[in-house]
Write the structure tokens for this entry.
Amino acid sequence: SRDKSLIICFAVFDQYSLPHYDFIDSGMPLDAHVPSALHVPTVSSEDHPAWKCINSVQDLEKWKTSETYNKYTSFISMLCFVSRGKTVADLQSGEASGAIKGIVDILNILDSWIADFPPLQQPMRFGNKAFRSWREKLQESAESLHRSMLPIELHKYIPSLVLYFKEAYGNATRIDYGTGHEVNFFAWLLALTEIGFLKPAIVARGTSHERGSDESDSHILEDVGDAQQIVGVVFLKYLQLMRSLQKAYLLEPAGSHGVWGLDDYCFLPFLLGAWQLRDNVDGISPKDSLAPKISDQARQNFFYLDAIAFIHEVKKGPFFEHSPILNDIGSTVPTWEKVCSGLKRMYYAEVLGKYPVIQHFPFCDVLPPP
């Protein structure tokens, strides 16, 4: 019902108690949540197998206070901050590094394999079995793809990197995809950062007092590395790839909450997209996301609006019925600042804090166990 939808929306945005991460509203220095230096492991991944350490709800609590959890959330926070007020074109500006180009090359290769494994003619509504052939090709090629991308001195980390890479594109047995796979993709990007391949160098420049503006914003974050293009180039390509896979192989939503979830498949287009829209110069408000027709230009500029438009493409019926949480965000949350804050808390609680999503997360020497 409509009342139930509103209750859930307000619970998401008002009742999660995560004060340590509520830096948007706390006045903490923004760079306190940005990695200040790369941690390059001193041991080889070849000598250590993967660890699966989240086997109970008690383990989940250890995960939330672990080094890897803090690295992951700091990484996501950094990507949010560099996206603030920027269109996709802004995030793509500048010459891409060799690392960014190498990752995009791999994603293009994965995309090309869809033509090699066309969908089978079968009566099922979801789960085309040709996806298993695509995933088998991924399993077989993962290490060689990394060897072609990485300099030889980083090859020793390939066994760790492929743990996340192989799990980032859906499950072959269930033929599904969801936020847990999305987490693995960003864990792969984080691991590439930890070993020094990606270099998302972020620095704080000046203070708001020096700029003659409100002192509540204490720092300006400036990207002097790969951070912006991780969002505007790499994430865009990953999102396009996953939509192609969803359409070609009719992937089931993994662990879907049905109409009471934010989205059937993903979360980060909304979180990063909300940060893009924060302070946007076009005057776009959360309410504008409920427009029945989102322009092609708006889709190209902002992940959030593109994700909304994609939902309109693949789902039938009134938006408030099949996507009540997104509908209520647009109709009840007045500013993008509050949307950003609420979605961040929701991501920590409903994705990183949920046992069914995180139980299969692998740990290794690059991203160590709790």
